[in-house]
Specification:
Length: 223
């Protein structure tokens, strides 16, 4: 085994330990999906480590027996396994560093959550924004609550999150949303007056949203 192969083997071994540590850190998965991810990561680690180990053994045996085919196949297998382990370790470190970076800079974390909530329509990110006490979170939540093309559950979650923030800005946003919803309801009633084809679903959705807005304002008032 040449010197560069030896150091590649060492790097692969260290990478395997890093990836193993990052994989086993959540020893008790909270959900089924976390358990599945743990299983997949463990299987990937086992395959890459086995390829690197067996490849190194085959390369050594091929060299000692003067079998060039076995030595070449072993080297390629070992290199592939080691590179996979190094890539997996770098991926784990990147994820952990990104998480630490976001926690260190709350405004950056709010930006990431805002993108998830507004563009990906992630309801978990909407609820998480409700724990942020800044104007950007209020702005994004207000925009989501006012969007008629968003699902009702997302809009209700945004209203609830505004109530969780509980400052004067979120209160003003809820007041504006109530005025907007009441105005839309009045316009719809005027448009449909004298006809039998009123938009029942939109009216029900407006009632739900108005009720949630009033409950959120009541929550802010009591807090």
């Amino acid at each position: 085994m040449t010197s560069w192969m030896f150091w590649l083997y060492v790097a692969g071994f260290i990478s395997a330990l890093v990836f193993l540590y990052d994989t086993l850190l959540p020893l008790k998965p909270a959900t089924d999906i976390q358990g599945l991810i743990l299983l997949i990561r463990g299987a990937a680690l086992a395959v890459a480590a086995l390829a690197m180990t067996l490849g190194g053994v085959m390369a050594h045996m091929g060299t000692s027996r003067n079998s060039h085919g076995m030595a070449r196949f072993g080297r390629y297998t070992m290199i592939l396994g080691a590179m996979l382990l190094i890539c997996m370790a770098l991926w784990s470190l990147h994820g952990r560093y990104r998480f630490t970076l976001l926690k260190s800079y709350p405004s950056l974390e709010t930006s990431v959550l805002s993108a998830k909530a507004f563009e990906n329509r992630d309801i978990a990110a909407i609820h998480e924004l409700g724990r942020r006490k800044d104007a950007k979170a209020v702005k994004i939540l207000s925009d989501i609550a006012a969007r008629e093309d968003y699902h009702l559950s997302l809009r209700i979650a945004a209203i609830s999150s505004l109530g969780s923030i509980g400052d004067s800005t979120s209160r003003d946003s809820l007041d504006e949303l109530i005025k907007s919803l009441e105005g839309a309801g009045k316009t719809a009633n005027d448009k449909n007056s004298g006809t039998e084809n009123s938009d029942g679903k939109s009216a029900i959705n407006r009632d739900y949203l108005l009720r949630e807005c009033r409950q959120a304002i009541e929550k802010i008032t009591h807090n």
